[in-house]
Fold this sequence. Notes:
Blueprint: H1 2-20, E1 30-32, E2 37-39, H2 40-57, E3 64-65, H3 67-82, E4 107-114, H4 119-127, H5 130-136, E5 143-150, E6 158-166, H6 198-208, H7 216-222, H8 232-242
Parallel strand pairs: 3-5
Antiparallel strand pairs: 1-2, 4-6, 5-6
Helix pairs in contact: 6-8
Amino acid sequence: MSGLKSMCKKMISIISAAILSICCIINFPIRSSGEEQVDMNALVKEMTILVNDARAEFGLNPVYLVPYLCDVANVRARECIVTFSHTRPDGQKFSTALDMNLVPCTRVSENIAAGTSDAQIIFENWKNSPDHWNTIINPQFTHIGIGLCYEPNSEFKWYWEQFFVAYNGDLQGQQLIVSNKIIPKSSGDINGDGEINSFDYIAINKYLRNELPLNDKQIESADVMKDGTIASADAAILKKYILGECDALPYTFN
């Protein structure tokens, strides 16, 4: 009995290590994991939203989901079945999966993980890993590809890949996928983290430069002067509040 318990604990630790990982919507089929039907498209969208929601909390631009990068990410996800590593099965670096002639990017990185089809679990494990988390919230990255695959006869069954690039321009088929779940707690709390700080100031300025989309609740929060528009004056008032030069938000003229 003790030997059986030891074996179970060993298997659990192996699976947990895989989930922790190591460091477009494309027409994925609906795959069966043996117990349930899994919509790959929905998983890709869910993971993209998780990434962009996390970036929004830091006042960062969202990354665009790109079909070609998803193709690259799927290649890497399947390669991880053979070699669960940032090195490809042929010994080359993971970055060689990208055709630089198609995407002449200035920076590239990847996150890999395995062990479950649950996007939230995978994302939380990446979040709890400094290296993987730093990739997700790296302000230099502009575009992403997400790949995943299911191989029932492999060690970990499910394999995930995030392929990030920094590219100054638009890529064919790119899609901006963000959620409306960010709910500001008060006027000026644009990123919905319950605090009013420099991240909110960054967010309102990026919105004014058309670099950051905001949902309806965020727009309402950014209108700190409550005049029905968001302008540089709102950013100025928000800055004064953060510096302690303004007592309350929303701001009203006496």
